[in-house]
Specification:
Elements (H helix, E strand, L loop, with lengths): L6 E6 L2 H8 L9 E4 L6 E4 L1 H5 L12 H7 L2 E4 L2 H15 L6 E5 L2 E5 L10 H16 L3 E6 L2 H13 L6 E3 L3 H8 L12 H9 L5 H5 L3 H7 L2 H10 L17 E11 L2 H21 L2 E12 L10 E12 L2 H15 L6 E9 L2 E2 L18 H16 L3 H7 L28
Parallel strand pairs: 2-4, 7-8
Antiparallel strand pairs: 1-6, 1-7, 2-3, 5-6, 9-12, 10-11, 10-12, 10-13
Helix pairs in contact: 4-5, 10-11, 12-13, 12-15
Length: about 425
Amino acid sequence: MSEQARIGLVDCNNFYVSCERVFRPDLNDKPVMVLSNNDGCVVARSQQVKDLGIKMGVPLFQVQHLVNQHQIQLFSSNYTLYADMSARVMSLLEEFTPRMEVYSIDEAFLDLTGVYPCYQDPIAYGQRIRKAIARQTGIPVCVGMGPTKTLAKLANFAAKKWKQTGGVLDLTDPVRRQKLMKIVPVDEVWGIGRQTTKRLNQLGIQTVWDLAIQSPKTIQAQFNVVVARTVMELNGTACLDLEDVAADKQQIVCSRSFSRKLTELEELSRALSAYCTRAAEKLRRQQSVTGCVSVFIRTNPFAVQDPQYQRSATVKLDAATQDTRTIIRVALSSLKAIYKPGFSYQKCGVQLSAIRPAASPSQFDLFDLSCEGTPPDNVILMQTLDTINRRFPKAVTIASSGFDNSWKPKAERISQRYTTDWRELVIVR
């Protein structure tokens, strides 16, 4: 008889905050928040901050009084540090499983079916994972296990919420599973959003158990196949496989709010060129081409005293491409068409869609004399550009948008790039 499947979900606790604390142990017991681009909103909170009732995504100015009152330590988002720490965690996790799906920057699904020694129970193996990650990276994690990905997610939620679990919980046992489901609200189920929760509540489905005992066919008729699969997963029937290789993005969006309001077309063009450069780099990283470029601009909707304006434009390309220059040219042409003087713009961005693998065949236009894709010499040029941008990140803006970077998002509280820049390594005294 084959062993029951066991999927594990390893999730880093308060990941951005934990990354900052690794190199600032003096903050381990203090309230810490990480802010979004422009230091505008809260994107990560320590447990001490959560206990103060500060919600995710709240604008900083709305909770400034709490920051002052409780001396909350603030950090600007340091994505260079976070990405490197994530890579270290994921590399370690690969040692504990033959199959792994990196789900996000701080989460990974592991196939733990039969991988732990026969003399060790799954909980002990989960604790071994936690200790190894903490010892070698300093990042605290929790481990949830179950026969499906949805149950592993639910187990991880409970492992984080209830300290008596020791940070590891296994929901393979149906009896333990039922006890937990009866006390957890249905909105904590993976994939059940706010609107779906409202409809479920209207039907008298309040807890996870209320959802689990429903008929999948009935749920599919009232909602959709995704919710029906969730019901099956909650009952131990796997409907979602591990994705060993992350799927290519079908859309790539690059946008930021500006550190100051922009009024001139030239300034907007510089910012948009930088975003196009970054989007094209992401496109080439997954070896894809885009067939559609969209651009948008908008004023600040919260500045109600200012005139409001927002527009977008989309251009379908005659030939799919991954060439930065082509994408910038199309984007700037669209920007010029939708730009209106007399407004103070707070944000702009570019979206690449109709994305497909660069090597895949496509249908040509009989009357199109252009060469689809990127000519071989341009491929070398783009690879060189990517190499330069990775080595000298500031060169992205210089090459694509001029020398005036005053529009760039603020990061006044950013920490050092402790693991990726020789000049910013920790100094031990």
